[in-house]
Amino acid sequence: xHLDLTGRTALVTGSTQGIGEAIATGLARAGARTAVNxxxxxxxxxxxxxxxxxxxxxxxxxxxxxxxxxxxxxxLREVLPEVDVLVNNVGIFDARPALEIDDAEWRRYFEVNVLxxxxxxxxxxxxxxxxxxxxxxxxxxxxxxxxxxxxIHYGMSxxxxxxxSRGFAKDAAGTGVTVNSVIAGPTHTGGVEDFVYQLVDKDxxxxxxxxxxxxxxxxxxxxxxxxxxxxxxxxxxxLGSPLASATTGAAVRVDGGYVDSIVP
Length: 264
Hints:
By secondary structure, the chain is an alpha/beta fold.
């Protein structure tokens, strides 16, 4: 398959590290003018430098902004008036006993993980519909379907993203714009390494800690290992391309078989 996004502009939120950076790299390699986003300008500039080292011909835009705030999204639109491929990737997660999650924390998870995607979709979807082409991709999680006991507030936010994706896909029906969510499984990132060590012996070497985490806390995985960010990015780039024109309103899994289901 030839995934060609030449002439398209892509925005990946939370793309200064991990899955977001891998997605931005993949879109840039496919020819998209790609905006790298994070709250800190220095972190954005560093991510752009790393991506350019991987893809020397990449057309990259530094787009620092706090997309969890309305004024941050407004400022971002001044830098990027139009977007063809919107990847709502930004998100937060942390282990917390269910009865210790207070109202403020519930609201914070909804603001960052859900409302940021809603605001950005509301900002860029109208232009996509007018132009007759566009892609909105919301990065969800296996936790949307298999709610983890140690972070139900995170699971709630990712479940909400599935509903948001399906609803906006209906709004975009028949326009040439597709809206999908991607259910990512347990993935190897720096943040996840910290999370793993919250749940297993901190003195274990990483390879042993990862195996112990999967055995104790993610035994449903058929892959039996953490997924690499590039494996998530491969699916996202495909869904963002013209080749995925018949896929919309879907929750597409790249979860290592974690969700025990025979349908996507």
